[in-house]
Structure formats: structure tokens, C-alpha cells
Amino acid sequence: MNNNLKIREDIDDRKEKLVKFIDEKRGKGYNKSALMSVLHKAQEIYGFISTEVIEEISMCLGIPTASIWGVVTFYHFFTTKPRGKYIISVCLGTACYVRGSKRILNKLKEVLGIGLNETTKDRLFTLEAKYCLGCCGLSPVMMINDEVYEKLTTKKVVEIIKNLKAESEVHYSEIN
Amino acid sequence: MGNTITIIVNNKPYPVEDGQTIMQALDKIGFHLPRLCYHPKLSVEGACRMCIVEVEGSNNYVTSCTAKVAEGMKISTNTAELRKARRDILELLLDSHPVDCNTCERNGNCELQDLARSIGVKIRQFEGEKKQYEIDLSSPAITRDPNKCILCGRCIRMCSEIQGVNAIDFTNRGFDSTVVTAFNSPINSSVCINCGQCINVCPTAALSEKYYTVELFRELSDSKKIKIVQIAPAVRAAIGEAFGMEPGTNMEKQTVATLRKLGFDKVFDTQFSADLTIMEEGYEFLNRLTNNGILPMITSCSPAWIKYAEQFHDEILPNISTCKSPMSMMSSILKTYYAKKIGADPLNILSVAVMPCVAKKYEAQREELKIDGIGLTDIVITTRELAWMIKSAGIDLVSTKGEEFDNIFGFSSGAATIFGVTGGVMEAALRSAYELYVGETVVDIEFNELRGFKGIKEAEIKMGDKNIRVAVAHGIGNANAILEIVKEDPSRYQFIEIMSCPGGCINGGGQPYAGSEYIALNENLLEKRASVLYQIDRSKTIRRSHENPEIQRLYKEYLERPNGPKSHKILHTRYAKKSPRGVVYNGKM
Ligand code: SF4
Ligand code: SF4
Ligand code: SF4
Ligand code: FES
To answer: Which of 509-548 (B) contact A at CB < 8 A?
Structure first.
């Protein structure tokens, strides 16, 4: 499991990508006004904006870290915590709730070993709650990235997670 | 600019100067509008909207701190609607503000409280959701209580525009908005240099020094300890203000007397060890000068400057004098020479320092200052804390009969007194260095080029065969500017004085709040405080550090010679690069 993370970092050219992007911006004479687009790029590349990335941007753009932190936390679309490859959103809207989505959520917490808005150590899964995903007829539902999983049971959930894990294992060993 | 125009305020015409803001114009003709985010020394943010006025022809209220006056402008400052609008804005702030003025440090000296009273906020019928942040007690120097923050942003602008440290900024938005360090880390692990200037401009108790008064009261009742206190020069120049006295009143003798009343066994003067600092620093300078040492030499008394340099400019560390600050020199002598002299265990001596400075609390905890593992200054309190302790103990500072400092560390030269104001350390150093180098006394010992509140001051002194160029900077922004000059032209100066606080220690982060007549950083206020120190200097017969007979005796009995091995062990220190998170960039490129 932890190997996956390692492999990912081994093939890490993300910092290079980001610095290149910043250099291009700087070349155009943007600098400070480039902050927003640099942050968007950083989030796109890393999936989240870490303290290290903020320090890097600070150095490249000449903006104090405290100010960048201010901008990152001001906008909800930036996140400072790592997010998983799979973002699981469990619907806790009324319809799903009465049909036991709370139990689904608890099961997910149990198998993943994380709480709400947390990410597994291997950075595969992030667990979130949503209020109505607009598929009440199929409740209880959850979404994993763009895909909707309907009429869930705790058993189904365990199965889904198992499959996704297996898939990732294959994926990373292929890279290796 | 300069043209006189006419504006109509509340139906009466007034001639005012063109080019200024409505607030500036109204201030001069005697209308003091409420304000929270505005500070005359900082950039204008226009965020709090407390300062609104009505301007004919404008549909919305106008924030007077941002809008400029114009010929014929019709302004209303006090209509019923305006009064209500201001009250609404203030009530919104108060809704989420803790209701604990009774126990608050700023009670009686709080801009929010004053406004609530003057704007006529009545009993709150509806209490909003209170902020619930943890108080940040991580630092030995600065305490942050975000619950009391009204988001005026003055601290942020102070830290960035004047100090150039950029330690803090707003985070989040709306109700969750608050002022934090980078990555929301505890302030002690941030790049904050503990200068405390943000405290002085904060309108509420959201920022303050870390209090040690309770601990000190406890220690003072310990009859087994030998309780010794020292006070810095700037304390006597300002403490009166906390007792309603006119700024510029010298309270030296009364302060000494009240410290005895508080229970201290000995009251010594940091000015004594300032003389000692000049001996060590003066000889260190001459040493560097004559032996091809690293120049320019930069002073080391200001602990916030030291942390700044260690974080942002480690290339300059070899230039900084290795002398401990006067506070730490005093404590060093107390725990070594003095302990032996009175036959006491150094661990049984309680060394307390009353300082105008918040960063001294941080300095006191620096490991590298210790001698053979023994800590030096046990407790540092600010001028404000001492004022509170005096009041709390029921002592009347104002009518107390003045007393003299104790022997043997109570005697000082005039040079030591002016340590408390920008340019003073340099002036004191030159008074002695000149004589020690040239062998004759300086005729005119007042160096007027080094006085006053210009951001960077320069002077050139002919010392025998050498032309010495010196510079003085106060406020870290100015210090940074000097370092830039040095980078460009390393041989431009031979000696540089840096104090972290604008104006020097007289305007330290621990000095009494500026009160109602003045605001923080006001030049007249600084001038008055400085004049106390210059007057004391002028009134002394001994005005050069090396002529202080007690200093001479200390060298004879114990330290041997300035910069000798003994004094190096006791009175000197070292610096090292520091890299707290977020230190990569300091605001200038
Ligand atoms: S900061 Fe001011 S208004 Fe707030 S509790 Fe303290 S005294 Fe009262
Ligand atoms: S103490 Fe000084 S460095 Fe620290 S936050 Fe306040 S102004 Fe900035
Ligand atoms: S901490 Fe004080 S100065 Fe800073 S924003 Fe809050 S109220 Fe204003
Ligand atoms: S003082 Fe004018 S908007 Fe705050």
C-alpha cells in the first residue's frame, strides 16, 4: 500500500512543472498578479496546496508566505490538505438519510480507517458528505469521482472499495 | 495639493487644504470621526466603515478615510441615519465579541470600548454567535486572542509596511476570517520577531504581550530568594503616561521607589550595563577596525532585530557585534560576579527586568546566553505590566517620594541613558570609541545628525587617521533598507546601529498605550519621551561610558579587560541561522 505512495513520488516531476509554469508567467511580467493562476496550477498538479508548495511560490513570486496562506484559505476551491485519487461523496440528504446512508458512511469510515473530510494515508481515498446528489430515487447513493453508485448496502460498499484498491494496485505495479 | 478650497460641513463652510481625505480635513477643523481600521502611519484600507459620512450627491455613505475633499463638497457627519448606520456597524462587531471588558487587559484603554460608549450602543438585545478560537500562548513574548480581533488589519499593515516582516495576514473569510501566521502555525514557530509593534496599533486586546505578572507576584513573596530588578532607560520616560501624567515626564526616582515597595531587595539600572555594553562594543569595534575585522559592525541590543537577521539575513550575522544586550549583561554580572560578591547561590537570585520591549521576553529564553547552564534573566515584564502591578498592589506612583538606585549597579553615565532612543547607542559608542582611539576627548559630544526620527540617519566622524561613516536605522523596514545599501556598497559604513522599533526603545512594543491624546507612532509623543532621556544625559557630569567609576572597578575586580577572555565568556554570545516555516521571503526583492 505505502509502496503506491512511494512510486508516485519517484515519478514526481510536479515541482518541475510548477516552476516552469511560474517562470513562464514571470517571463510575461506578471509576478504578483500571477498568484491566482499559479495557485490554480499548483492545485491542478498536486491535487492540493501544501506548505512546501506555498514556500516555493513565495520564493518564486516574491510574495510573503502569510499572504499566500491568506489567499489560499480565502477561496474555497483551494485545499491545503491532500486529497485522494478517489473522492467519495456520501449523500446525507433526507431521502438517503432515511434509507440508511448514515450506516453507509460509518461502514466507509470503518473500512477506510478515516473520518469525514479526511484522506487515507496512501492518498487513494478522500471521504466527504454531500447533501442531496439529486438521485433520491436511487437512494442511498454515493459518488466516487464522477460516477454514481446507487441503492447501496454496507456489503456493496465493502466490495466497491475492495475493487478500487485492487485496481490501483494493478495500476501502480504497471508503472513500476 | 496646497490650494485652499471650501467644504460645507453640517451646513457651515470651512476653508480646507485640497488634496487630503475628508477625514484628514475634518480632523483639522475639529470633527473627530469614529475610526477603527485607519492609522495615519499605515496605508488606508477603508475596511471597517466606521468613518462614514454623508456627501450630497452620493447615494451611498462615503468612507471619509478614503474619499478626498472637493470644492463645494457638502458633508454631513451627524445625521440620525448616520448615527444609526454607525451603531449598526459597531453592533455587528460587538455581537461576535466576547463580553468580558471587566476582566480585559484593555479595559479603559480600548478603542472598541470607547467607540461603543461614544456611539451610544445600548445593552445588547441580541447576542450573536461568539468567535471561539484558542488563545495562542505559544510565544514567550506575544499573545494572540483572535476572539477579540475586529479585523481592522492594522497589525498586518504594521508588520508588513513598517516592519517588513510579513508574519501575519487575514485567513478564511466572513465570520471565519481571522488574523494568522503563515500555515496558521503557532506564532512562536512563525517568522514573527516579537517586536510587539502590532500590539501598539491594535485597537483591542487581540494582541498583547505574554503576561508574567502573576508569576512575578508569586516570586516576590518568596522570602528565600534575593529579588533583584533592573529597569531599562525608556521605562522611566514613559511609565508616567500609564498613570495619566503628561508624556515627557521623567519618572526615574518614583519608579525606583515603587519597585522597592513592590518587594524587590535591590533596584539596579540597566543603564549601568549599557555602559558596560559600550565598553565591550566599543573595543570590539576598534578591534575590528584596526585588525581588518569584518565591517560594518552592527549593534546587537535589539532582540527582535537579532531574530530578524537570523531568519532573513544570515549572511550578515558575522557583522553583528557579539555583545549581549545590556539587559543580559546585567543579569550575567548578577549571576556571576555579584552572586560571588554577596556569597549567594546564583540559583537563589531572582533576576527581573522591566523593559519597554516585548522581544526581551524572547531574548531571556535564548539558550546561547546562559553561562555554565545557568539562565540569566528570570522574568521580563513590560512597562505596561509594571504599571499594572503598581496599581494592583495599591501603590501610588505619582505621589511616591523618589528614591535612588542601589549601589553598585545603579550608577551610569549620560551615554547609557540615551540607549533608549534611536541613535543613542551609536552616539554613546562614538563618545567612547573616539576617545579610546584618538586618545583625547570629543569636544562636542552631542551628535545631532544621529538624533531625530528620520528613518535612516548617517554621519561621518573623523577619528585620527580614520574617517568613520556610521548609520542608524530604526524600524525593521529601515533596517532592511540599510542592509540593501550595505549589499550594494559593503564599505560604505563601518558601524551601524539598528533598533527594531520605530523611534527606538521609547516606542517599544511594551510601552504604555498611547492614550487618547496621541496615537501610536505619533512623532510628538516620541519626541517627548526622547526628551526625557536627553535631559537626563545633559544633567549628568559623567556622560561617557568609560568614565563610569563603577565600570572601571568591575573590570579591575572581575572582568580584567574589555573583550578579554573573561568578558567574552560572561558578556558575549553567538548567533545562528534560524529557519521557521514560511521564512523564505521577507517582503522585499
Ligand atoms: S478588547 Fe475592548 S471591548 Fe473587547 S473585551 Fe477588551 S476592553 Fe472590552
Ligand atoms: S510582533 Fe512584530 S513581527 Fe511579530 S507579528 Fe507583531 S509586528 Fe509582526
Ligand atoms: S489583531 Fe488587533 S490590529 Fe490586528 S486585525 Fe485584529 S483588532 Fe485589528
Ligand atoms: S476608518 Fe475609514 S473605513 Fe475604517
So the answer is: none
